[in-house]
Amino acid sequence: MISRKNRFVSLAMMVAMLFSTVSFAFAFDEGMYAPGQIAGLPLGKKGLKIKPLDVYNPAGGGLTDAVIRLSIGCTAEFVSPEGLILTNHHCGFDALVSASTPSKDLVETGFKTESKAGEISAKNYSIFLTNRVEDVTAKIKAGTDGLSGAALAAKIKSNTDTLQAAEQAKAKTGAIVRIQMLNNGFFYYLYETQEIKDIRVVYAPPRNIGVFGGDPDNFEWTRHTGDFTFLRAYVAPDGSSATYSASNVPYKPKKFLTASIAGLAENDFVFVLGYPGGTTRYRESWSVNYAREANFPFLEKWLTALSDSLRQIGSTNEDLRIAFQSDIASFDNSRKAFGGGHLQLKRVQAVEQRRADEAKMATWIAANPERQKKYGSMLAELKSASEEANAAQNRDAIIRRFPDLNSMVVFPQLVAAMAATGPGSKMLTEAERAAKLKEVEKAYEDRYPAHEVNLLKFFLKSFDELPAGQKFKPAEDLFGAMTGQARREAEAKFADTIANGEYAAPARVVGLYGPRTMEFNKEREDILTFTRGLVAERAALTARSNKFAANIDRLRVLYMQALTEMKGISPVYPDANSTLRFSFGYIKGYQSRESEFRTPFTTMKGMIEKNTGEKPFDMPQGLIDMQNSKNFGRYGSSDSIVVNFLSTTDIIGGNSGSPILNANGEQVGICFDGNYEGLGNDFYFDTEKNRTISVDMRYVLFVTEKFGGAKWVVDEMKVVGKK
Questions:
Q1: Structural domain boundaries of the chain?
Q2: What's the predicted TM-score (pTM) here?
Q3: Under a CB-based contact definition with an 8 Å cutoff, are residues 256 and 571 in contact?
Q4: Which neighbouring-strand residues pair with 671?
Q5: DSSP secondary structure code for residue 392 in this structure
Q6: How far apart are CA 491 and CA 461, in angstroms?
Q7: Cα separation, 527 vs 500, whole angstroms
Q8: Model confidence at 620, in pLDDT bands (50, 70, 90)?
Q9: Is pLDDT at 594 greater than 90 in this prediction?
Q10: How many Å apart are CA 543 and CA 527, to the nearest integer?
Q11: What digits encode the pLDDT tens for the residues 642-685?
Q12: What class has domain 35-126+197-280+575-720?
């Protein structure tokens, strides 16, 4: 750890070292490396038995060519020459929900067909192939020396537009070229991708395999979840991308993965290829503090409110229960991720350690005139800008998500009306009024008033729980004189009036556009005054955010340059941004707490031990019988079958569905989760506790062939190992 040369900071460092094993030193064994960085890593010394060019080859033919991104945000991989795709069950969840009916819940029963002819459309799914990745940082920054502010931004934009247009002109038919800024402009990467639009479901296990353990086991170890689903990509007969058609044919990928059922042992080398969603590993302490103290705690509560509300509504309506399944699963997953992330950021003292980094950085900068010239006031500017932007961080965390546009209809329409009818606003023309009415009526077609009431009550209660000095005045004006249950009842009545009162009629909302001529009404005035107050607060927050954003890219690039230079980090891997990445590690357990070591493998024997016969621990009887009779076929290991395993690979959301491969480049599993002790890894990586949880390929193929009776799917794959 790092510090200024004084007793106070040294003591803080000692405390951090005593209570945490996490390293902010960016160890070589962590990282989600860009494809072009793979060749520069000493992977042979680490255990890789194939050449780095076999993993990623700019000319094509590497394993990365088989790894694709699902449109819903997961990773997947081709596993046969016939466009067969393997990903997680939770990544195929929406497709199963879309194809379900009250009498046929495919999430519950799973999906099986006897041949390609029976495969069903994965509605709203597509996949993206990565044809090319190139670090173009030098090209984008060419000619920017000495520039700042608007001039720098203009030059960057000009270089980006020119290069992107030139590369798009050379791209394959149907491919899209885009240049992305990473880490606030520290890196610029060019990506060429291609979309395939016809995706179908091939095989999915039932709920009590694919989601065994449910939310109680989510992010937990031990684990016994068969989190996998097979899909297939189809294209038009001429090979072009096309939407679903009976005449489409299976896509022929230029690369597909080989599955290995030879098994794994502790300390074996493994690596992951995938599309991790987002990290912020190089962020300043003020950003980490906002996440830990304001954003993560609020997100946990908000997501809990969302899932609880949908469960309540679905409990009395089977159609809605099925329709809401995917949303509830997503909310529950994110809720636990943010809640655990908040706790782990406290456990590892992430803010305190980054502040120690900054204390050392200040000393390091001051010790060298060239550094002073380059980095000078950067830390002071970051501190000033961050403290101003985050002065009301708990309130801002709420305001940023209120109203919830995905869950509410009436209140967002009121907010839009109040925002459009400020000083100087004009009456709508008849044509404009008719168009606005049509727009609002369209928005009202798909709404659940009970859900809106529940969410409004949640946000109003959240305002009440804000610390002194950050209270939301419009809420205090309405409810500040009340406490406890009396306030909750008043908030509930107010929420019901918004969702089910006069503004539940689209015409009444449209009537708010333009000068007001309606008679006085207390309920109406309370709603509109509250809404105007929210509009004003959102405008103030936007102004603060824009002021912060005006300088933050420049400051964060300097911060990252100073941090990586001071620590001697090389290579510097970009933060994740849903693009193709590589991570490596080893099969290892971990010490979860004192006297509690978690071994790296689980089996069907352990699944039986967890079985209660009731959701979510209701193991299928067929699997129990197969375990008891040792009917494992070629997939057994000793007296059972390995279900899940742990590795030290560095992953995050978006890596779901990623292939995990052995030293020979053969797929040994599918990543589907991380452990609870490793949450918060947006900001740091703890080599001692961060673990990837994967489903073993032996279990995937065993369930598909022996339990599911879909041997034809396995026969299509290339499988090596046991005969």
A1: 35-126+197-280+575-720, 403-541
A2: 0.92
A3: no
A4: 694
A5: T
A6: 8
A7: 12
A8: very high
A9: no
A10: 24
A11: 999 999 999 999 999 999 999 999 999 999 999 999 999 999 99
A12: mainly beta
